[in-house]
Design brief:
This protein has 15 helices and five strands. It is mainly α.
């Protein structure tokens, strides 16, 4: 079988991006009832989401073309659709989605403050996306049921799903959902921005475009969104047009930036759930042998998991496929011995 070249990967990624973009455009047209519910004022946002779809599909295709990511991707989906895994541990997948994707408990082991800040950003962005994308695409609309209010109807694809009074708590939540999202995002992003400026460990390896720009973009989006509400309520619309343009530019820039910056880990993270499920189910299968470290005989992991790591190392041509058969401590000792033997020796 001919090994794929970078040009092959780029062509396949471009095709995947084009297909996903076309499907999104079709979904926007059909979901907005042939554009009858589409708000032309939101056209820049909709165009940005089409570019976002292309970029995500392109980058994801390139990512899973790498040997290590491809093996993780295949193994994850195999575990996801495994009937045997479901019978063995029916609650494993929803529990991992909740703890690994939703509440990101693995971050709490590093720092409670970082976990809390990440939760604020995560849930704020999820809330904003659930509101912004369907509105941008014309999938759901808010229309006055009386002509002048305060009664409103929320319609999805033209079907009424909810009627509410704009003056009660339900109405306030409906019309201020994005403000709530902004209030969640600002302290979370501000904490990470502060940490990037004060923590020596974070400063050492950070890059402006990769680490700081995403945080600044989130803060600009959230602050300008809140200022739009402030302008409409307290300033009778003063400066609203300028703020609306500034907010639109920041949102469009961020959407286009997502596939090619740090935000791409949002798309990658779900694939890791499948790998976590594979690790969990392989450790809980009856009869699976737990391999011992070849040097100290301490337990490492199950045979399927070690074999998967060895396969990835062979795919990458690393020439050290026996590495997963050693525990982390012994790997460090072996690296130290190799340094003393092959590197330090040259300075004597």
């Amino acid at each position: 079988m001919r090994r794929q070249t970078p040009a092959d990967v780029r062509r396949r990624a471009a095709l995947a991006g084009t297909v996903v973009s076309v499907l999104l455009i079709v979904a926007i047209v059909l979901g907005s009832r042939l554009l009858r519910d589409f708000d032309s004022a939101l056209l820049p946002y909709a165009v940005a989401t089409v570019f976002l779809a292309f970029g995500v599909a392109y980058r994801y295709t390139v990512w899973i073309s790498a040997p290590g990511a491809r093996r993780l991707f295949k193994q994850g989906w195999r575990s996801f659709f495994s009937a045997a895994n479901f019978r063995k541990a029916p609650t494993a997948l929803p529990r991992m989605i909740a703890t690994y994707l939703g509440f990101q408990k693995f971050l709490g082991a590093r720092s409670h403050a970082r976990w809390a800040a990440h939760q604020l950003i995560f849930w704020g962005c999820v809330l904003a996306a659930l509101i912004t994308f369907p509105l941008t695409w014309g999938w759901f609309t808010f229309t006055s049921s009386t002509g002048s209010g305060p009664g409103y109807e929320m319609r999805i694809w033209g079907f009424k799903v909810l009627g509410f009074d704009s003056l009660n708590i339900v109405g306030w939540l409906m019309f201020h959902g994005l403000d709530i999202a902004a209030v969640l995002v600002i302290p979370g992003a501000a904490y990470f921005l502060w940490r990037r400026m004060k923590d020596r460990g974070a400063i050492t390896g950070q890059r402006f475009a990769y680490d700081l720009v995403p945080l600044i973009a989130l803060i600009v989006i959230a602050v300008t969104g809140l200022l739009l509400t402030f302008s409409s309520i307290f300033l009778h619309g003063g400066g609203y047009e300028f703020l609306a343009i500034l907010h639109m530019v920041s949102v469009v820039f961020t959407l286009i930036y997502i596939p090619f910056g740090k935000f791409f880990h949002i798309v990658q993270r779900p694939a890791a759930v499948g790998m976590q499920l594979f690790k969990y189910t392989s450790r809980n299968k009856d009869g699976d042998e737990v391999l011992a470290c070849r040097r100290c005989q301490e337990p490492i992991d199950t045979a399927p998991y070690v074999e998967n790591l060895q396969g990835t190392m062979r795919d990458l041509d690393l020439g050290f496929a026996e590495g997963p058969e050693y525990c982390p401590r012994c790997k460090r000792v072996m690296r130290g011995n190799a340094y003393l033997t092959h590197v330090k020796k040259g300075f004597k």
